[in-house]
Amino acid sequence: MSYQGYGQPYGQPPQGYGQYPPPQQGQYPPPQQGQYPPPQGQYPPPQGQYGQYPPPQQGGYYQSPPPGQYPPQQAPYGQPPPQQYGAPPPHPQQPYGAPPPGQYGAPPPQQGGYYGAPPPAPYGAPPTQPTPPSLGYGAPQIIQWDGTADAQALRAAMKGFGTDEKALVNILSRKDPLQIEVLRTAFERLFKRNLIEDIKKETRSWFEYGLVQLARGPLMADVHNLYDAMSGPGTKEVVLNDILLSRSNADLQAIKSAYQRTFRRSLESDVKGELSFKTERMFLIVLAANRAEDSAPVIPQQVEQDVMSIYKATEGKVGTDEILVCSILANRNDNQIRAIAHTYKQKFNRSLESVIDGEFSGHMKDALLFQLLHAVDKYMHAAKLLEDSMAGLGTKDHLLISRVVRFHWDRQELANVKGAYQQRYRRSLASRIRGETSGDYQTLMVACVGE
Predict the structure, then answer these.
(1) Cα–Cα distance, 172 to 153 (Å, whole number)
(2) How many Å apart are CA 404 and CA 396, to the nearest integer?
(3) For tag attachment on the chain, is the N or C end more exposed, with fewer CB atoms within 10 Å?
(4) What global pTM score does this model have?
(5) Closest by alpha carbon to 15, among 353, 346, 354, 347?
(6) Would you tell me which CATH number, out of the four given (1.20.1290.10, 1.50.40.10, 1.10.220.10, 3.40.50.720), belongs to the domain 145-203?
(7) 182-229 confidence digits (pLDDT tens)
(8) What are phi and psi of 187, to 5 degrees?
(9) CB 57 within 8 Å of CB 34
(10) Distance in angstroms (rounded) separating the CA atoms of residues 375 and 384
(11) CA dist., res. 267 & res. 379, Å (int)
């Protein structure tokens, strides 16, 4: 499905959107199913993590929300993710994210009366459904998978003279976050050895770095990457942006807890020691994890109020009230930020992206643009982050690896990121990676993107 809005300045709504529609019972009217972008005059559909998809129905598909509710993203990019890389997707005739035949638009479960988003909450009311943690960030889970065979294969690949790099790639690049935990534990139980330490001894350079990112799993990779970004001279601010911004409260709490357990120090105190002035305050607001949950409805009155607050803090005064803008973008969910960006453009005929670009500078500007562009279209934003790690002279290998590995944990998200990359840059992500990498490092990165 084509996205007719591309070709415009990034982060702005496509031309053709009409006037800001009147609110209906506290929520914006949804676009017609399957239309992306919606017809002229309708509010654009969400592009971010508006709620988590409801639990899979039998057969692994999702039902659409009932009419009148703000729908989850229609996933215009990519194709259905394969069950395993290289395998044909199930029911290829179905559009990405669609329910099985006969269930499209099926009535929601009767319990509670709502499926997905909750009913409109009173203005200022707290969200009723916390966003669940991402896979690998929640409480330990027991899964029906035995890592013994793969643990033995990993040991065989690194034992004795030489290393079977292909076996390491094939095994580690195909595991989900829960399987990686089981595999790492099985390796230690069987051989009384640490998998990550063995990988470090047997491999080198960026190939080693990528394998370690995979073996740690998403949560511990985040924790160690944060620590490394704030160790030694200087701070890699872009790493803090990648890991901490636009995350759910549950994921942030998991990251903070794991950081404390691993390094016996609080993440907040380390961030305070590395950042300064208003940028420090911005990240402490983020780390407070008081973001509106993804299930919180978009409330027109709050959107209007936030738009006017941002205007008065930037274009409408001499100087800039940076903290007010930071507080709004840090504490609203993606759907709300997207509504704010759309309304700002309608009201003042200027994109919120251009306002931030003109009113802010340095790390704070980069962080605010990260939050905004992620909310406007998280898949296109991810594609841009991947391209930024390869563009220009030399490849920013540590960013390329950490970003590829981070997106690879969620096959559905990865399929959409690859589709967005293809649309924006007119080439496949895998072919771009092949042009920037070589050897075992190249093999690992291409395997992580599923090719």
Answers:
(1) 11
(2) 12
(3) N
(4) 0.75
(5) 346
(6) 1.10.220.10
(7) 999 999 999 999 999 999 999 999 999 999 999 999 999 999 999 999
(8) -60, -45
(9) no
(10) 14
(11) 28
**Contact, 267 vs 287, CB < 8 A?**
yes
- Spatial separation of the C-alpha atoms in residues 293 and 250, rounded to whole Å: 10
Domain boundaries, the chain: 145-203, 377-451
Q: How far is CA 67 from CA 71, 104, 238, 295, in A?
A: 9, 12, 40, 16
String of DSSP letters for 111-180 = TTS-SSSPPPPPTTPPPSSPPPPPTTTSS----S---HHHHHHHHHHHSSSS--HHHHHHHHTT--HHHH
Asked if residues 252 and 286 have their Cβ atoms less than 8 Å apart, the reply is yes
Same fold, 145-203 and 377-451: yes
Q: How far apart are the first and last CA of the chain?
A: 22
Q: Which residues is 8 bridged to in the sheet? A: 6
- The amino acid at residue 364 is M
Q: Which residue in 447, 449, 445, 439 sits closest to 204, CA to CA?
A: 439
Q: What angle do CA 432, 437, 439 make, to 5 degrees?
A: 130
Homologous superfamily of the 377-451 domain (CATH): Annexin (1.10.220.10)
| Separation CA 362–CA 358 (nearest Å) | 11
Cis peptide before 99 (omega within 30 of 0): no
Written as six digits, the tokens of 443 are 């093999």
Contact in structure between 174 and 290 (CB atoms under 8 Å): no
State which H helix or E strand residue 85 sits in.
none
Give per-residue pLDDT as tens, 59-112.
Answer: 332 233 333 333 334 446 765 544 444 443 343 333 323 333 333 233 333 333
Distance of CA 263 to the CA centre of its chain: 25
Locus of tokens 């890699």: 236
Peptide bond into 130 cis (omega under 30): no
